[in-house]
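User: Good morning. I'm curious how zinc ion would be positioned relative to this chain. Could you predict the structure with it bound?
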Amino acid sequence: MSKRPKRGVPEGLWLRCLGCNNAIFRKEAEKLQNVCPQCDYHFYVSARDRLTQLLDDGTFEEWDESLRPSDPLEFKDKKRYAEKLKDEQQRTSLLDAALTGHGMIRARRVAIGVTDSAFFMGSMGSVVGERLTRLAERATEQRLPLIIVSASGGGARMHEGILSLMQMAKVSAALARYDAANGLFISVLTNPTMGGVAASFASLGDVVIAEPKALIGFAGPRTIKATIKIELPKGFQTSEFLLEHGYIDRIVHRAKLKSEIARLIDYCGK
Ligand SMILES: [Zn+2]
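Assistant: Good morning! Here's the predicted structure, ligand included:
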């Protein structure tokens, strides 16, 4: 759908699979929604492509599409945050790291939000937090099932300081009100879901689904190892490990994700 180069799936006829290291015919992987035909490795999917994969054709209507990030702290490291934002926007054709709106999943109307790890690692700045909060509030008002697909390696966006950090509490509070109104929130964790995103809305689903072999956690393994100074268990912070330890409810292959969400909505009577 989008014309920009896909991260994790370099341009060209062939691509090297990050799972099995085989050369994969790109078209073949794309036909499988960016999954490796040989080892089932789930490649990166942009937020727009994810919406195309999950929603019935032409049913998506975006909410709050004009919300755009600003630079209230005038943050600067090697480069100004304001300039970095422009670069990311141009590169990804997104205004910020989340898209929200409503659409149909096999003829069931849902409120849906998706984060995109290509935009500032999918980190949660003020706009991501505000879009997701409004999404949860509209889902509450309109009594819609709520789906949020997380692809966020960055957690809170440090360039916005405390304004980013407070989004975790803000989105979580909106989700608590949605829950009190008996809403059904299905959280889908994809590779990667880390930091403040994992520590807030992504973990708050009534049902938490993960794609196979996704990296899910709070701090990265190196940081944890350096802090607690013990060997971490094998496969730590993968979907499979987290399923075994009860952190997520099930692992669903990308090809079955749409049907599985539709089934869950019916099962929960929403
Ligand atoms: Zn592979």
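The longest helix spans residues 161-180. The chain has a mean pLDDT of 94.
Let me know if you'd like a different ligand tried.
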